């Protein structure tokens, strides 16, 4: 049980004994200011209202029954009926000691352990991976790592777009190039830059006489399983996937080929999906297309918004594969929760497929379907992030630049380190900075990409946290022999605050688990690093005049801080170098 949960249990017991309705929530929150204690219970007012009782009177009665012996130093009533709880130094010391010794960081596995499908990354293979997929990939990665860490059975699903009409155009272009080539190398060269390959194909599609017909013919052939066409498609997809692999590797995310569950995988199931929707009475034909109209989806003019599942030419759509995927994730993967890390602009699409899948009984009511939406990454000009000419920024180039900038920075800070070591550190700092800049923002809002702030050693950035960690490690490098079984004895307010924050790691993870918000973890780590800096200033460790017990105790707190920072950064998919 973390501290919040422990206080919640105790306060709720007391509330019940004091006469509050069973199940009245204690609403335990960390206090905003130290003078209000470490935590406050805000639930008394609500419970009193239900009882038609004076809240301060109820609070007084709750205090009489509240058993926090040995846990809290003082507990008091404040304002209209808040209860402020000041934890005792001794108790915090013991908690911190346990946490260090059992290496748990005070984290317990969540109960019950759930099966959680996480749909993230999902690039379209027809094109180069772009920044929108960066967001999905890294945010999804953090939530995957965190849920695994908390003991859930996590099943990543990389729903890549490898199917659809664009492939007709690409394959037609590819085939005609191959027919005019002497070797396969030339083709590989063309495919090395998927962005321009796509542009060339599109150009021919729009302008070249007869090309569009060939392209359409390829779509039909592909969908009917024509062997030659299929082989061509496979070759294209393989090249595109290897580009993704390179990006994943560079980003240091967990995704592998095993997590691929592309749109094409659902192809054979699509006719059945439409058939089952018909059986469920959900299909309406509209202009020859098979559509589902649901009451809750209305357009601007109040007309119902269709979800099209089959076009008039018989082709299936994005929504159809998503419905098939939902069913698969329930029937075969047995998901309790399905989390979709997908651009906010697809929220209507997802809301529609969620609603349809429940109405059609593809997924039971009890399965939680959650769109973890994210906003757009913007350039300095306030428009969606792009190259100067308005093109897509290749992720590989972006990461390359990050590394170079980090290298300059590390060299400036640490000129004595050998070049190889600086390169190594720059890699971790560069990619860490790009990831952290994104992860630390509230995922639902748009944000502006800015090299200077993300690579700064001050403020809520990856380099700051990595540096804080390296700095603690350097204390240990200088400290010599350390008594790893020493007692922790909290005395100073800054020690109290640091220990308290250390014990609150699991509270931050609890929120990531529920809401899929990596920024909660970022903010927590930032606060922790800040608390450490304050502590280190007020409570020196290595100075000569520090008594031995104080030195040992403080080293233990430093150790716990380093462990927590490293683990936290690890959950963010960011490495913490030993020195910087
Ligand atoms: N199940 C899903 N629809 N996942 C999201 C896939 C993202 C899609 N390929 C895109 O680039 O927009």
TrEMBL record:
User: Is Secreted among the key words of this record?
Assistant: no
What name is this protein filed under? Arginine--tRNA ligase
> Which processes are annotated in GO (biological process)?
arginyl-tRNA aminoacylation
Q: Which residue ranges does the record assign to the Arginyl tRNA synthetase N-terminal domain?
A: 5-87
Supply the alphabetized keyword list: Aminoacyl-tRNA synthetase, ATP-binding, Cytoplasm, Ligase, Nucleotide-binding, Protein biosynthesis
- DALR anticodon binding domain location is 465-580
> What is the reaction catalyzed?
tRNA(Arg) + L-arginine + ATP = L-arginyl-tRNA(Arg) + AMP + diphosphate
EC number, UniProt record = 6.1.1.19
Q: Give the quaternary structure.
A: Monomer.
Motif 'HIGH' region: residue span?
A: 123-133
Q: What is the primary gene name for this protein?
A: argS
Subcellular location, principal:
cytoplasm
Q: Which SUPFAM superfamilies match?
A: Anticodon-binding domain of a subclass of class I aminoacyl-tRNA synthetases, Arginyl-tRNA synthetase (ArgRS), N-terminal 'additional' domain, Nucleotidylyl transferase
Q: Which GO terms describe its cellular component?
A: cytoplasm
Q: Which GO terms describe its molecular function?
A: arginine-tRNA ligase activity; ATP binding
Family that this chain belongs to:
Belongs to the class-I aminoacyl-tRNA synthetase family.
Q: Where does it reside?
A: Cytoplasm
Write down the top EC class of this protein: ligase
